[in-house]
Amino acid sequence: MLKVETISFSYRKNKTILNDFKFTLQQGEHLCVMGESGCGKSTLLKAIYGLVDLNKGKIFWKEDQIFGPEKHLVPGFENFKYVAQDFDLMPYISVSENIKKFLSRFYPEESELRTQELLEVIQMTAFANTKVKNLSGGQKQRVAIARALAKEPQLLLLDEPFGQIDNFKKNSLRRNLFSYLKEKNIACIIATHDKNDALSFADKLIIIKDNKIIENNAPKEIYNNPKEKYVAALFDDVNELTINNKKELLYPHQIKIVENSVLKATALNSYFKGSYWLIEADFNEQKVFFNHMIDLEKNTEINLQFL
Ligand SMILES: Nc1ncnc2c1ncn2[C@@H]1O[C@H](COP(=O)(O)OP(=O)(O)OP(=O)(O)O)[C@@H](O)[C@H]1O
Fold first, then answer.
1. Which value does ipTM take for this structure?
2. Which of 201, 226, 251 is the last residue of a domain?
């Protein structure tokens, strides 16, 4: 189990990046970390892996304390694997060889089987013999994940793991990888901007704002009861409306057009989203965004209902 005990960290004096961060994670659990760019997601992963020296607090994995480079000369904690945004692969050898480098040379048959298994997880079997230098950014990212899994870690730290992968591949890869991790009971912490990583695959979600953890809960709870616009906006376009002198946060799917209502609005723009349209409208001089099956002409008068 991971215990992050009230840690603080800054790269420079007077600029705290992680301010009193505190949370736990059980073996096999998946945690997503979200927050605006520069809020400290990558720094948190580095701190957990032992790549920085904390100003305050302690981190434990089970009974072992994780130390930074001052006390632990070989960077990184041995039971963890960290896939950073720059993947650090060996460019002049093949995809298979990159994975095998991390497996035992003394058991070539097992090593081959394990490599095949991991190639399937990252959907790169067809590229087994391709040199890494000839891969795209997204393919390199997948090889880096496979390499991190070669010697099964107890905790996998992933920084924007699908950032360079196209949507088509991303969804099936995500399903593959996270079910593989669950099957092997490998805990995972993912720094991400992608709500799908959090909503569909994480057991827990942490949200960072102004260098502090402002949410730590099940993703569904945070999504359904966002405390503030910052939180809701990580998931979707969000409307912050003043209704009867009270501020309300509504996602676009929580507003719909009805035949009659006292809530009058005027359509301004329609944006095609594939299976629906996102309508921008004026509601009492406030902008509202909501989903609708068809597009609306500019200046169409509409009646709204808030769900
Ligand atoms: N090596 C460093 N030295 C000094 N400051 C740094 C260093 N690395 C990051 N920072 C600063 O620390 C803050 C947090 O950076 P970090 O990379 O952790 O953010 P992030 O949430 O992962 O961002 P993104 O979503 O854009 O990847 C930023 O203000 C960044 O400029």
1. 0.97
2. 226
